Amino acid sequence: MKVILSRKGFDSSNGGCPSPIMPDGTLLSMPIPSNDEIGYDELLWGNDTYKDILGQLKPRKEYGNCHLDPDIRENIRKNAIADWKPAFGQISAAQGVLNNAGVEPGDLFLFFGWFRPVEKTDKGYRFARKGSGDFYSSADMQVIYGYMQVGEIIKEPERIREYYWHPHSSKERTANSTNALYIPSETLSFDSSKKGSGVLDFRKDRVLTMEGKSRGVWNEYEFLKPEHIYGKKKNSAKDAGLYYCGIWQELVVFESDGLIEWVREIIR
Questions:
Q1: What is the pLDDT of residues 5-14, one digit of tens each?
Q2: How far is CA 259 from the centre of its chain?
Q3: What are the DSSP E strand ranges found in 62-216?
Q4: Could you give the CA distance from residue 174 to residue 160 in angstroms, rounded to a whole number?
Q5: What is the pTM assigned to this prediction?
Q6: How many distinct structural domains can be found in the chain?
Q7: Backbone dihedral region of 16: left (phi > 0), alpha (psi from -120 to 50 degrees) or beta?
Q8: How far apart are alpha carbons 5 and 221 in whole angstroms?
Q9: Which domain holds residue 132?
Q10: Other beta carbons within 10 Å of 72
């Protein structure tokens, strides 16, 4: 089984701030801004819209519509979709990486992104102040927030359009021959008690970032070292840790000792 570490959600260029770790531990990945049809004001976390939350965390920026992908968190739309199913789309160069690395049914995505804890105040949500507690209570971190074991990869435009609520079913994307939609398995092959896709709450073992380092420097797991990664990746960390520089979305990891045990623990 290959494991794909898939970078998603807000970054410094798309969104301009971390996604929030809510006070109850919810890793609320914020989909990046886009011209797609769904707006931040149509997505809910409890009684708050994503637009409300972002307006409190970054009040000087206006957020309109977004690219809701991967679409794996249930019951977040104001207007529920009766036949909704989880799905993840990919296209162009990033899809080329997945193709060339041989990603297939049975392989597993771990979705991660840039997160920071938030606090609830009498004026609303705010990001926790850096240095106000231990590393995990205030730091900017890259954290694994969701997963999907691939059950099917759909590339035929007419079939992708059956997932009409998903942004990769749009006319523009289905006209692109590289467009693909990943559909999860019913349950995990290594744990039939769990669905084939889902979201995760905050836990320290789901943090990729090495404590005390900048968010892009990861814990130095042997199974995430360059010799186990698809393509010509180089560890650019200056001393300890792992750092894969550059603009990339998908890091395909081939199976080696310890990888699957690590995945099991993260999803457990």
A1: 999 999 999 9
A2: 19
A3: 88-90, 108-121, 124-127, 141-154, 180-184, 187-188, 191-195, 197-199
A4: 7
A5: 0.97
A6: 1
A7: left
A8: 13
A9: 3-267
A10: 25
